Amino acid sequence: MIPRHGALILGGILILLIAGAALLSLVWTPHVATEISVSARFRPISWENWLGTDQYGRDIFSLLMVGAQSSMIVALLSVGAGGLLGIAAGLLASAYGNWIEELIMRLADFSFAFPALLFAIMLASIYGPSLTNAVVAIAFINLPFFARITRAAANSIWQRDYVTAARAAGHGRFYITRHHVLPNITAELVVQATIQFALAILIEAALSYLGIGIQPPTPSWGRMLAEAQTMLFRAPELAIYPGLAIVIAVLGFNLLGDGIRDITDPRLKRRRA
Fold first, then answer.
1. Residue 47 in contact with residue 41, Cβ under 8 Å?
2. Which residues, listed in sequence order, are joined to residue 59 by a DSSP beta bridge?
């Protein structure tokens, strides 16, 4: 059982670790993450500082915990907003087709011309860098992904016999979309959401690294990497720890998505059989 669903189990464990650290940081951290102490600079690993301290005397483990909170918040908000809008647009395009589908798909194509990083830079130049702008930028790039995948998956459902029977029974497009189309593509959308979660964490780290994402004093894995780049020869662990945190989070969501796909995709089930 474990080998068959190993990706799902391992991915779930990794995500639980990251999410658990993020939730725990809301009520407790070993030290105050933003507390600066010149006398405590570059302390090694000890019972008092589990991963040591950085060049400002801040506890690294506490910074990682609060950084997990920042990454998860950005990922949840951006994927949630982009997913809801994208799924609604994809369902609308599939249900009504014609010029509505063409308009939505061309708008999705147009949005691909503005990568999240470029869009975030534009927002930062106009409104200033902030968590809100990072969420908006990442949600913007999530929207066309969800719209395209939803439309493609929904189109295949609209060809099924039970949908044809529902239409013959006089049910409208909204009823069929709600009761037949959406329930049958939910698993595929969940898999895509896990992939977009991983992408959102990477983009948030990149934005914070460039200084246009989450702003000080709120800890962020990306900014921890940016602050550590001048200390690579003095204290390379300052870059290793947040880098590993990003890798674990991204790997966890990717494995979780693969595991869910393996369980829900009937083609993979038949192949095993």
1. no
2. 53
